[in-house]
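writing this on my phone so excuse typos. first protein, seq and then structure
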Amino acid sequence: MTEHEHIIDGPGIQWFPGHMAKAKRLIEENLKLVDVVVELLDARIPYSSANPLLKEIVAGKPRLIVLNKVDLADPVLTRQWLTYFQEKGLAAVAIDSMTGKGTKQLVHLAETLAKEKTERLMRKGARARAARIMVLGIPNVGKSSLINRLAGVNKAKAENRPGVTRSKQWIRIGKNLELLDMPGILWPKFEDPVVGLNLAFTGAVSDEVYDMEQVVNRLATLLCRSYPARVCERYQLTPDDIPADGSALLNLIGRKRGCLLKGGIVDLEKAQRVLLTEFRSGKMGRISLDIPPSDGLKKEAEI
């Protein structure tokens, strides 16, 4: 499922603040109010950003998988992930919530999935009503940006900090759709250490809860192995310059970008910030870290 299962001998990353447990209860209590669950995933890490708790919580509800931040993800792998979900019988769409790309298809799919329930209620004598969806996803996956795009106004408070939890709110999307926004939740334990690393790389967990040096070194190693052309282009290196070791790449970046201390020593902390920021912002190009499961893999993503 991931591009870097061979470099997971790193720090164990675990993070489940108390308010996440409260958010889980809030979702369970309000699930009966909606017709469809929209699960928002990070298109760069569809496996790692899929909360395994949600599959159990929303069992029995129609589910729509939405791959957000598609502008940052490898387009080849995004197409493979969409095919994977569709073969699993799940509706799926790739979007860019910042520009609105794919959001019309999202709305159409959500209304279609909700139609069975709304029509069943009408046959029982209920008044016609808008379809109701619940948007779920881990922190910092772009839920607020998506909701703002769909609603056309800043109804949801966008937070670029993982773990910022709001109370629920209903938001009208056109005449045929009502959306229930819920707080983002992570899960109690990352069974796969690669998942923890991917969430740290993309900013889904707070930078304050892990060893920055170890994590960014692993990101640098991964990029050298999986996307060397992107690294060369961004940092003006030749293929022969690309090291196999992440710390060596960070030293190169530090010198290229003038991250130097007295005596010409590389300020590694500053170089780490450069790499992490440029990866997260997409300045290094469209990069994905998870690959879809296949029969050749030992384990399959339960998404």
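second protein below, same order as before
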Amino acid sequence: MKNFILAASAALLAIPAGATYMQAPACADDGIVVPDSTGFKFTDIKTVKSTPVKDQNKSGTCWSFSGVGLLEDEILRKGGKETDLSEMFIVRNAYIDKARRFMRMYGDATVSQGGQISDVIDVLDKYGAMPEEAYAGLNYGEKKHSHYEMAEAMDGYLRGVLRNAKKKGNHLSDAWLQGFVGILDAYLGKVPEQFTYQGKTYTPQTYAASLGLEPSDYIGITSFTHHPFYEEFAVEIPDNWLQAKSMNVPMDEMRQIVDNAIENGYAVAWAADVSEGGFKWKEGYAIIPAEVDEANMTDSEISRWVQLDDNARDKKRFEKKGPQKEIEVTQEMRQKHFDNWETTDDHGMVIEGIATDQEGNRYYKVKNSWDTNQIYKGYFYVSVPYFLDKTISVMLHKDGVPKAIAKKFKK
């Protein structure tokens, strides 16, 4: 997923279910000023047990933070203690697998910072897991994640190895992978064969087993018409390097799955487009307002409106505050926006609740990984139209899927 980053740090302010949020003036320590009025009043009507908001900072690793966030919430749902899992253990192992694939594909593959939420499940299954305190991945003198230098070093190294191999008649040395791992060791740190956590000694595999999570229990869900419904397919996006498959369902059933999951205590990892004008992170909401209705404008409004260029009109459309009429999303519209790149794979987050605004419109309460210097301390509210139009896919425990829908799945 693309690297949409806000750098800041603070602890999560826990917010109980059923709480009502009024907009209020605030000023974060790093100078981010929260607007004194957004026009919204959100009321949480259902939330799941969740772990605190984290900060991916200057790293394109939202896929790991969202996937790990899902697993941490799953541990709580299953009656376990609050757990802080290492995102960078996941990232490190995914990078090594990407590098291997890059060479096997003669360089015709990606080794970017991006990935998919399903990558977290893949690493959990193959390599295990570690707690944050045993592997923070900060071995390069920074207090927060900052991967630009490391990413360029990895990219340059792999492309240099590839060029040299081609010069030698397509022959790789036996040392190339060891050299790549050396870069990861330098920046993220070496992975210990064993570590002690809360008085017990583990390997990554035995620690993963102690969490009570079964990788095969997690299912990806998507909704597009270029593949048959109720069958799995690999969503065609650049960061789906593993070609992980998601179950394809009609748009309304995708929403039913998320609603059912939240109502029954299951968190949902969410991959979506966050580049829309109605995505207001600082203000704490994401909506897609309906197009301006010129037919109901007064003559003076029309005269001003027609003088604006397209960019100015679009900007004005998103300037309104508070609840407003939004687009009516159809399956055809959703597909068109994906096919023409209006909906892109930008970011991974975790849906952890359902809420309403003061007019009764429904929203999903979403935990982000851009720290807590924001109006709702790292959470924001996503309208149903925004979710329907801008979702790439979701991932959740298979038991969160309504049985009536699950019966339609063809595997």
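The mean pLDDT is 88. thats all i got for now
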